[in-house]
């Protein structure tokens, strides 16, 4: 699999998994859509995915790819480093909640979604990078 395809797969998987907590509540949008035939209900249902996609893409681009370059340079590339970094970066909105105590619950929910999305993105990307390492070592042995 190409790096571009693996990157997009990591973004897609992270987006969907990060949106799952929000999707658990957005089913109300489907009730509005089917009850009132209002398109606003459909937008409400897909809002978690629409909001998560650019965030996950940006985080993968600005954190994941530089992390890959750094780990390759250091010779320390391991899939667990991608998962841990995704988890920590994704959970970082929770830390903002301590600056704004009134919104702590909202920031905590964002942190849970972000941690889940970041960890899954890191896991998918880390598996791809491990597969590349194995393929390279097999070629080097031949």
Question: Low-confidence runs (pLDDT<50, min 5 residues)?
Answer: none
Distance between the termini: 21 Å
Quaternary organisation of the protein chains: single chain
What is the strand tally?
0
Chain-averaged pLDDT? 86
Helices and strands, in N-to-C order? HHHH
Strand content: under 5%
The amount of helix comes to over 70%
Summed up, the helix count is 4
Return the structural class: mainly alpha
The major sheet is characterized as:
none
Apparent shape: flat
Describe the protein's architecture and organization.
The chain is an all-alpha fold and about 140 residues long. The protein is about 90% helix and about 0% strand. It contains 4 helices and no strands. The protein is flat, with a radius of gyration of 18 Å. The protein starts with a helix and ends with a helix.
């Amino acid at each position: 699999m190409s790096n571009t395809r693996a990157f997009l797969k990591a973004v897609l998987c992270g987006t969907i998994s990060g949106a799952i907590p929000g999707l658990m509540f957005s089913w109300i949008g489907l009730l509005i859509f089917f009850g009132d035939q209002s398109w606003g209900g459909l937008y409400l249902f897909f809002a978690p995915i629409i909001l998560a996609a650019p965030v996950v893409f940006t985080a993968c681009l600005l954190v994941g790819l530089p992390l890959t370059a750094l780990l390759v340079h250091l010779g320390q590339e391991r899939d667990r480093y991608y998962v841990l970094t995704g988890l920590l970066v994704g959970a970082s909105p929770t830390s903002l909640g301590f600056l704004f105590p009134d919104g702590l619950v909202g920031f905590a929910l964002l942190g849970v979604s972000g941690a889940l999305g970041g960890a899954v993105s890191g896991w998918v990307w880390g598996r791809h990078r491990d597969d590349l390492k194995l393929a390279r070592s097999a070629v080097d042995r031949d």
